[in-house]
């Protein structure tokens, strides 16, 4: 999105962008068809760069795994590896292997396939409700309210570019940066921290699993930005190549993604063309609902 692309975008916001997310999470199950896996099929969201958004395949893989466990078993953790870039113009097949069903926990391995090859390999764990010890991290103080911050559309509407239009009008989440966004300009300070408010643009169904999966979807948007901030980079740094390598997530408490959530992130290390970021997600009442970790590849031109 260079100055050559600048120009007012007169683009109407879709009536309900959240409907796209709901469609993505509504997998077909082939009437219970199985090999050694339970098989599901999901659509891909169109992308300007024609690659599947990592958060999409994470969320869909979780939904596939959720479909194979008892309703009283709730996902509490997932660990996934992005193996190949996905084609956003093709659907994705999900194969779920039932690794174990114990007294309190169930484990599932989910592979996401395109053209007969896995693009994501993930293991998720599910647990029945239980009582036990409890504490949580404190939500940072002094964070401005989301209503006082510009939306992505506010920041990018002046750029007449397919990626700017997609991020402004086609993503199902409203993402608002606490510090200056990195879409075009580098950060004002090289500090390896980042924070955003986020929520879906429209209401979501009351199904708690949809909210948990949708949170995984949104967790991939900005998790690598602390690495960029720590090194004075923006997403438009010429010649830079960025890709997610793996993604881990833990759900701690109930969550609704159609209400504002604060996503606080930091990067403890970057080296060897890789960077690690971690994030904590809080609801507006300060309840710590989830934790995220991701390692990404980041290469700069010689």
From TrEMBL:
GO terms for biological process: acyl-CoA metabolic process; fatty acid catabolic process. Residues 51-127 form the Acyl-CoA thioesterase-like N-terminal HotDog domain. Pfam families: 4HBT_3, Acyl_CoA_thio. One of its GO terms (molecular function) is fatty acyl-CoA hydrolase activity. InterPro entries: Acyl-CoA_hotdog, Acyl_CoA_thio, HotDog_dom_sf, TesB_ACOT8-like_N, TesB_C. Keywords: Hydrolase, Lipid metabolism. The keyword Lipid metabolism applies. Residues 190-297 form the Acyl-CoA thioesterase 2 C-terminal domain. It comes from the Bacteria. The keyword Hydrolase applies. It catalyses: a fatty acyl-CoA + H2O = a fatty acid + CoA + H(+). Belongs to the C/M/P thioester hydrolase family. Homotetramer. This is Acyl-CoA thioesterase 2. It comes from Arthrobacter cupressi.
């Amino acid at each position: 999105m260079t100055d050559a692309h600048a120009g007012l975008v007169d683009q109407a916001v879709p009536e309900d962008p959240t409907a796209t997310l709901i469609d993505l999470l509504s997998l077909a199950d082939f009437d219970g068809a199985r090999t050694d896996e339970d098989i599901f099929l999901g659509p891909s969201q169109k992308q300007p760069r024609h690659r599947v958004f990592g958060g999409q395949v994470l969320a869909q893989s979780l939904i596939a795994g959720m479909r194979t466990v008892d309703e009283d078993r709730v996902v509490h953790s997932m660990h996934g590896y992005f193996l190949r870039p996905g084609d956003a113009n093709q659907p994705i097949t999900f194969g779920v292997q039932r690794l174990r069903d114990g007294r309190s926990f169930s484990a599932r391995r989910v592979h996401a396939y395109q053209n007969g090859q896995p693009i994501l390999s993930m293991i998720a764990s599910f647990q029945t409700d239980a009582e036990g010890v409890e504490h949580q991290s404190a939500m940072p103080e002094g964070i401005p309210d989301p209503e006082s911050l510009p939306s992505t559309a506010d920041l990018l509407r002046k750029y007449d570019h397919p990626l700017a239009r997609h991020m402004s009008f086609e993503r199902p989440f409203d993402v608002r940066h606490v510090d200056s966004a990195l879409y075009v300009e580098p950060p004002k300070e090289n500090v390896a921290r980042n924070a955003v408010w986020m929520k879906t643009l429209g209401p979501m169904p009351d199904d708690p699993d949809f909210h948990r999966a949708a949170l995984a979807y949104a967790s991939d948007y900005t998790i690598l930005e602390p690495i960029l901030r720590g090194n004075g980079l923006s997403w438009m740094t010429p010649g830079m190549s960025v890709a997610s390598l793996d993604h881990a997530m833990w759900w701690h408490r109930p969550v609704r993604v159609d209400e504002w959530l604060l996503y606080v992130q930091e990067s403890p290390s970057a080296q060897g063309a890789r960077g690690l970021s971690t994030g904590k997600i809080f609801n507006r009442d300060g309840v710590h609902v989830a934790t995220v970790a991701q390692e990404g590849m980041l290469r700069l031109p010689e």
